[in-house]
Amino acid sequence: MPLLGKILGGNLLYYPGCLYSTILQERSNKYLTLLREIGYDPIMLEDAKCCGSPLLSSGMSNLYEEIAERNRSLFEEHRVERIVSPCPSCVENLRNQGHEAVHITVLLAEKRSFLKPSISPCDVSFHDPCHLARSLRTTDEPRQILTHLGFNVVEPEYCGVFTLCCGGGGGVKARYSELSLEMARRRLEGFHSKYVVTSCPMCLLNMEEANRKFSLGKKIYDLIDLIST
Question: How many CA atoms lie within 13 A of 26 on its CB side?
Fold first, then answer.
């Protein structure tokens, strides 16, 4: 199987973002390993951390511009021409800064024939993150992956570009924690399946917390939790 880092154009950078670099590092490592197992050859840059999105949401535009310029110089130095990330907010923000960036579900969907389920397939619901669905218009790819793996996707009333916000992003969680959890509770109660899958670190963590706090009895998965090769 040819490695596709160069075929896709220049160096393909795997950009985990803040949460996948820290709290969710184990899952990030699984994503990176998976990319390599299915034929991609991404590089990683230790100095490429925050994309600046939380700063922009908080109105810290001067510091945001500093971060953006730092990353721009770093990418140029390492001849980065394409970026893949498991964080929709990072992808949206990097695109807005002029970089060619794609969410990881797009690459996984392209190579889904190499993917296998890590658990027995069952009924699942997919929570469309706001940035992934509305900004990136990436709604089919996660479902293509789940369907290929043998899972039956049970759609909630609000899905795709009409998804309901779970309250995890846009600075809501940091500033209005209780409101954020109430939004996640409302979202989780709208799923008919016990098993809820998402592809956003902020959605994942916020829904997990709400699930525990309100004893909703759901099982929350990151997409990578369901994939093996």
Answer: 2
